[in-house]
Every structure is written in C-alpha cells, then in structure tokens.
Amino acid sequence: MASATVQTPLSSDSITKQEARSTSYLDSRLAAKNVTDTTFVIPVIDITPSFSSSLADRQAVAAQIRSACTTSGFFYISGHGIPTTTLSGIIQQAERFFAKLSKEQKEDLHIKKSKYGYGWEPSEYTSLAGDVETKEGFNFGYEEGLDATGGDGKYRNLDGTKGDANVWPKEEDLPGFYEGVKEYYSRVLDLARHLFRLFALSLDLPEDHFDHMMTHPGGIARLLYYTAPKSPLPAATTEASHDQIGLGAHSDYECFTLLLSSNTPGLEILKPSGQWHIAQHIPNAFIVNVADFLMRWTNGVYKSTIHRVVNRSTDARYSVPFFFSINYEEVVETLPTCLKEGEKPTYRPIGAGVSVHRTE
Ligand SMILES: O=C(O)CCC(=O)C(=O)O
Ligand SMILES: [Fe+2]
After folding, report:
1. Is 222 in the pocket of ligand 1 (CB under 6 A)?
2. Does the pLDDT of residue 14 top 50, yes or no?
3. How far, in Å, is the centroid of ligand 2 from the Cα of 35?
4. How far is the CA of 250 from the centre of ligand 1 (A)?
5. Which atom belonging to ligand 1 lies closest to the Cα atom of 226?
6. Which residue numbers delimit the Fe2OG dioxygenase domain (predicted)?
7. Cβ atoms < 10 Å from Cβ of 187
8. Ligand 1 geometric centre to CA of 247 (Å)
9. Residue % of the chain over a pLDDT of 70
10. Of 132, 209, 263, 272, which one is least surrounded by beta carbons within 10 A?
11. Is the dihedral of CA 228, 231, 237, 240 positive or negative?
C-alpha cells in the first residue's frame, strides 16, 4: 500500500503531511535524474519469452525490466498469461461490491474494525499527502485459501499473529464474490512470483534468489472505485484541485505493484520535471511499478516513483492494485551487489512486517 501516507497503519516509513507536500520531498522522489520528460516512457514489455525454457530469453525480458526500473520505475506487461475472463471478472466483482452492497452491509466490513487496514473504506475517509481522497475501497490480504500453492502453513499477519484477518461480504449478500476474488488473487499472486524471479535476473542475481522469501508472502489487494467528477476536468492538463484527487500522491510500500484497471484512465505518474504523466489504459495489460522495498534493496537504483489518481473522465474508474510483499518475517536490506565500492547503504534494513519494522 502507500508509503507517503498519513493514516494507514501499514506504513512504517510515514512522513508528515507537511513533508509529503513539500517540494523537496517530491524532488527527492522524482524519477531518475538520468531521464527528462521527453525521454520519460512507460514501456510495454511483452513477457511471453519469460515463460521460455531458455535462460537467454528470460534474461532478455529481465533486461527490459531493468531499463524501466532504473528510469521511470513503471512499465506495462502484456503476454502475462492471465485469461481475459479472469481480468474482466475481478473488475465486475469490484463493480458489484460497490453497487450492490447496502450501506449497512458495507458498514459491517468497515476498515475501522480491522487492525490491518482490511475491509471497506468509504469515500473521503482517508487523506494522503494532504488531500482527502474521493476513492471508495475494499482491502484484503494473503490467506492460504487464495494461494494456488496452498502456502506452507507459516503465514502470519503483518503483526506476526496467526489467524484470519480478512473480512468478506456474506455469501448471500454478494453470491460468488469470494470465488471471483480467489480466481483473480491466485493468478495475480502466481504472476507476481514469476515476476520476482525476473526482478532477480534483472539485478544479476540467481533467478531463485528471492524464492525462499515468497513461500507465504504478504500480498495486499484493493478494489478501488473512483466516481466520475461532478464537473468534468480538462483532460488536456494535469491540474487538479484538492477535491478532485481520487488517491493522493504517494509511493507504494512493498516490493512491486501489479495494477489492473477498467477502461477509464486515471493513474498519474510524477515526471522528472514535477509534472504529471497521465498513464494510458492498455486493455488486458498490467501496469507494474517498483515499490519501496525494491528501492531499498537496490539502494535507490530502482525507482519507487510517486503517483496519484485523478479521474478526468465522465465514467467511473475501477482498479485493482496488488501490492506484492515477501514473507513478513523477512528483512529488506540493501543488496551488496547494488553498492559501488566503498558506497554505504542509503536505507536502514527494515522488516517486511509491522512487528519487525516498528523496532527500527
Ligand atoms: O487506482 C489506481 O489506479 C492506482 C492505485 C494506487 O496507486 C494504490 O492503491 O497505491
Ligand atoms: Fe500506488
């Protein structure tokens, strides 16, 4: 989830509201200085060859990933193998969740009842970087029943405790919802594990370097709903007043994020100049972005770029970000291979779960 946040209990690297809005903070988090706005691109990477048995094919995809991660920190992936029916299925579940549940049924799932930030978030309930967010959301995390591997029995919640943390609508209130979520979550988790092996290759590490860290990984997903603005915004500019912000400016906290959305664009990515790049919607592709753990592992070589959401359309936007973490008992510590001779790590080691990183 987000790291430049003021309210979520999941972030350890919280900065204050004032800091988050300061030019110097944003400046420090702009995409690599080795790119300019004109060379700033979010490439489309067809990852079909990454499923090949040839290491050279997989390395070729990893090289494209490295190039994106060291510049904009964002890329699209196509050729990922998740059926289009699974993708449209989860968007439909998101639409059903927000439209079909009554206010009372949503209240039963209210995020304020969860110490992990799971459940339903009403619109304008959260603020980020000083902006009250207009989005409505539903958050859930890893559970073995959502993992096609069945897990290894060792999953613990963010705070190290055992037991179910997710909250779900009652089956009779939204028939088929849990099954739909499971179909999507298990596929996107599989894909994230596959991508993590490509990230390892992209860092000149053995392909299985991170494997032992993702046997029961944290993986928070959200269904998000951004209504169309009351008065449409000019699409040609990237200006937005504070009451038009769906999701405030932030970077993501975990390893990387896989973002799926409906046809309505809305994601805006901070360019080197401080202007916003409006990400186009590419049907059936995911947008992948580097999050803070990968930035820390790589000593900032991989960019965890600031982004936000503004719906400038006349239609609603639905999105489903999946934040891929690692086993929560693991520690994220700068990879020696990412340090030049004599260079000191910029970031302290932190635990992936709250119980570890709160002791920093
Ligand atoms: O909804 C989107 O398009 C992006 C969501 C996002 O950036 C987040 O939840 O961290
Ligand atoms: Fe994000």
Report:
1. yes
2. no
3. 21
4. 9
5. 1
6. 209-326
7. 18
8. 7
9. 87
10. 263
11. negative
Domains and CATH numbers, the chain: 38-329 (2.60.120.330)
pTM of the model: 0.92
Q: Which ligand 1 atom is at minimum distance from the Cα of 266?
A: 3
pLDDT of residue 236: 64
Q: Which residue has the least CA distance to atom 6 on ligand 1?
A: 321
In angstroms, the CA 108 to CA 103 distance is 9
Amino acid at residue number 123: S
pLDDT tens digits along 155-203 = 999 888 999 899 999 999 999 999 999 999 999 999 999 999 999 999 9
Question: Cβ neighbours of residue 198 under 8 Å, at least 6 residues apart?
Answer: 47, 50, 58, 61, 62, 65
User: According to the 3-state scheme, what is the secondary structure of 3-18?
Assistant: CCECCCCCCCCCCCHH
Q: Half-sphere exposure of 120 toward its Cβ, with a 13 Å CA cutoff?
A: 17
User: Using one digit for the tens of pLDDT, what is the confidence trace for 99-143?
Assistant: 999 999 999 999 999 999 999 999 988 877 777 888 999 999 999
Q: Which atom of ligand 1 is nearest to the CA of 261?
A: 3
DSSP per-residue letters across 36-101: -GGG----EEE-GGGGSS-HHHHHHHHHHHHHHHTTTSEEEEE-----HHHHHHHHHHHHHHHHHS
Q: From the CB of 135, is ligand 1 less than 6 Å away? A: no
